[in-house]
Write a structure and sequence with these properties.
heterodimer; A: about 140 residues; five-stranded antiparallel sheet; 12 strands; B: about 230 residues; disordered N terminus
Chain lengths: ~140, ~230
Amino acid sequence: MTMTNTIDYVTIATAGDATDFGDLLETNHGVAGCSNDTRGVFSGGHAGGDGGCDRIQYVTIDTTANAVDFGDLTRARRSVTAASDGTKGVTGGGSYDASSSMYRLDTMDYFTFSSLGNATDFGDLTRLVGFAQACSGD
Amino acid sequence: MSGKVSDNLGRSSGLVKATSTGAPTESASNPTVSTNPDSVGTRFINTTSGELFVCTDITAGENVWKGQLDSTVEPPKRFGGRGVFMGGYDGAWPGGGSSDVIDYITIASLGDAIDFGDLTVVGERSGQAISNGTRGVCCAGGADDTMEYITFATTSDSTDFGNLTVGRRPSGVSSGTRGCFGGGASSDDTIDYITIATAGNATDFGNLTTGRQFPTSLSNKTRGLFAGGDD
């Protein structure tokens, strides 16, 4: 397996194949993604020394271009997921490697879409978890 | 007060805003998000129900109409104030296990997560679930093709939604009406779609530019992006 930095896009209302959008800042997998109506933010992933990445990067969804650095998570980790209310994005859980084992985190941290910068502690999930799936609603 | 509000156009309290735009538009049905008015405050009467609507947000094709009988006509949503984290793999490896836990948070308020309910299928997911603002849909993970959903407003266990075209661990994007799941297994380039408001099996949408597992995704109402993963 080889990690990729490819970003594809589709027009959701119209079935068809995806088109190249641009690239993430590094090859990566297990990244979280969330957005408001304008900006999409990717956080975390596998690119990193202990199998975790603290990178937060963003794209403008209605353009096509490579991702741009946004800031850093409070801790490097992969197999993360994220939820958004349109103002704030929350990245939750994740995994990292140490001593030939894979550890999970209950960490949640957040960023504000409109302001580039590092993430801030939000609180804890009820469990140590990676590979969850997140979304949000009323 | 009873009868049609069209008989009482002179009132100026509540949602009924007196305007200088002349008589309200009349129709046998409610306005839609594509009913484009001249200005905020424009009135529209459903002559079948008698309900009077006022436009409270004007954006071409995405207008918001509030009815005086509590009806709301607004564009579909993709997110909201309650965030849910569904399933995954709990604890260290080796030693942990796949999870059926659903946690939730109130995104506007910092704090720890609270138990929401349980998933019907225990499993490691990947990437992002999808939402129409009312309903959240996630995939079971692994080679399982099950999709399941929760209703954000009600803490409870998930319910079966239908099946993906191929069992895998995809990541999802949403327009608020339609959701697409992409990738999810080694060399898998499948994209399939669902209508979030209607439980049922997924339909083929197209293909990613390259097959991949562990992708992530995000979207606005028009465009969905799939990023990273293992080729």
